[in-house]
Each structure stands twice: as structure tokens, then as C-alpha cells.
Amino acid sequence: MSLLLKDRVWSMEDKTAKRGVYPLHGYKLGLYRLPIKLEELPELKSVHDGLKKTFEMDMYADRIFATYRWMEQNMKDPDAKGYQEVELSVTVEIVSGEVVDIIYQVFPIEKFGDPNWVKDYRKKADHFAKMVIDTILRNTILADKMVSYLVKSEKISEVAAIQKLEELTPLAKIVLGAKPKAVEATEDEDEDEGEIEIPDGAKAGPIDIEYKSKIKPSKSYEAAEHTIKTWGRKGTANAIMGVWGEFVSVDYDICVADGACIEACPVGVYEWFDSPGNPASEQKPLMSKEPDCIFCLACEGVCPPQAIKIFEQK
Question: Is 15 in the same domain as 102?
Fold first, then answer.
């Protein structure tokens, strides 16, 4: 959404706006309209519930509110004379119906007391609001609706639409498991196991770093703590496993399970899981704690067949 601001309907400084009465109206207001619908209560609830561990979420009737809070200090040492701190916040409102309106505003700093020592408050609040909007659009059911809209309106493939949505939401945090359920496999992905051509051994590396635009998304894998996205996965017998992980990405048809990535990772992102029937190896390093990745690239550097690619979270 930070790059969708060209679709802005209006931006004003006023205590009211021209379209109805919104709880958030006042001072600086931006109203942005998306060409999708969000009408059913389960859909609204899924957006609310999917992000409640990431933002402070509230829901009233057909409206969802996502609030992001951050702290500012006037000096580093809390014990120093004159030390002050203040909690600031910005709220994004989603109004559902025949179209989806996304609203955010930046209140005057005086709303939070008298912290006039805070530097670049409006700039920071604007940035965080865009981050919240990008995160909502990338991770919730709104992502699926936007992809469907892009496919139909621009007559592009689903893969291209997903890539465009990622480009349009560069500030998004990755929130695994924010949708009500994992993406279902398509008919092509459910093909008969007997029709899959089984390779003789491991595929040659390195991993294709453009796999998201070249390989079709496939059925997700339900790990204990979150849902792991996959690309190019065929069937359920592990003959062709494809690439697993959205930003800790491993091509399991290249991976030979030497274990170097598990030993190298300083935060324990990976753990072993069995992959019987895979020609490259019958065990794989599962990125079960993918959200914990600190993007140190240690695993990528030690992988002998170069099966790993780390995409830093923006």
C-alpha cells in the first residue's frame, strides 16, 4: 500500500471528511480505496484475528482498527537528569462494504501530551501507518482478493499478480499464519503420484533466486507454529518437493541434508524433518522458526549445493 498511494482519493487537513462520519477523522486524513469487497463477517474476523499478535486490533461492526505503538526517548540514559519518554501511536482503519476504504491519519503531537522534543514525529507516524497497511495487504485475506483482482483486471498470471502485490507493499512485515487457512492445492498440484517423473538424484544447484516469478505457488505445509509457503511442490510422496519458505527459502530438490545450515544458524531457525522418497535426501532442514531469522546469511554461505536463499524482510 505504500506504493498504492497514487490511488489516493483525497488527503486533507480538516476535522471532518466528505464521505460519511469516521471515528478517526480529524486534522490530517488520507482515504484510500481498494477495488475489492470485504463483506462477510468471517472475512472481517479473519483480518482482525490474523494480525492481533502483530498490532493492537479492534473491530466494530464493519470496521477494523489496527494500531501500532512505539516509544520515543529524549536521551539514551533513563537515569540521566531530564530524561523523558513517551508512547506514540498511529491507527489504520479498514472500512468494508462494496469497496474497501483504508484510512489513516496523523494526529498533532499534542495528542500525546507535550513531547515537542520528539524529532520527525509526522514522518515516523506516516511511515508506520504505511507499514501497517502493507502488512495487512500482504498477509491477510485481502492479499488473495487483491491477487484475484490483478489477475482479472490486468490479465496476468497468478504468479505475476503475487509478485506485483509484493512490489506494491515493500514495507510489509511477514506474518505467517495470518490467513484463516492454508492455501489449497490446485488440480495440477493434486496430480496422480504415478504421473510425476522422479529424478535420479539431487537437482544441481544453486537455487534459482527468481523462483517466485518462475514457479507456481503450491500447497502450503502446516508446521507446528505457522504455515510454510511452498513453490513447485508436487504430490505428497516427496518425489518433487520444490522450494519451501517465503524468505528463508530452501530448494529441497537440491538439498542433500548435510546439516551445515542447522549447525550454522545462531537462532535455531531450522530443525530436521523426514522426507522419505525424495531423491536428494530423506531428511530436510525445516524452517520451523522462519519468523526468528535475523538474516545473517550463515546458512546460505555454508550450504554445499547452494540450495538456500535468504530474502531480507523489509
Answer: yes
**Tens of pLDDT along 142-186?**
998 899 899 999 999 988 888 899 898 899 888 777 776 433 344
- The total of structural domains in the chain comes to 2
Residue 176 lies in a domain: no
Distance CA 302, CA 93 (A): 45
If asked whether residues 59 and 109 sit together in one domain, one would say yes
Instruction: Please check whether residues 45 and 140 belong to one and the same domain.
Output: yes
Q: Give yes or no: residues 140 and 237 share one domain.
A: no
Whether 175 is covered by a domain: the verdict is no
Q: What is the pTM of this model?
A: 0.55
